[in-house]
Here is the input.
Amino acid sequence: MKNVTTSVTSKGQVTIPKEIRDLVGIRPRDRVGFRVEDGVIRIVKQRTVRDVAGTVKPLRKIDDLETMIRDAKQDHFDQRIRRR
Here is the structure.
């Protein structure tokens, strides 16, 4: 585990040292999250849609986007009718 010390500015900002950013792959404009666990603050790189695109296999083959949209609208309509 790598330990690096930095300071907090008067505005509550902290610079993540370059060697740490490089180690975990944080680049400019990436988003990070904060988790507090048992008094320990963890900074976690947030995954974006772009990061996970293509990693999940679709439930069904999408042949035609228009057909998929029409089916989704019909399903939504059917569910609303059943609720009444």
Observations:
- The longest strand covers residues 32-37.
- The beta strands are 32-37, 40-45.
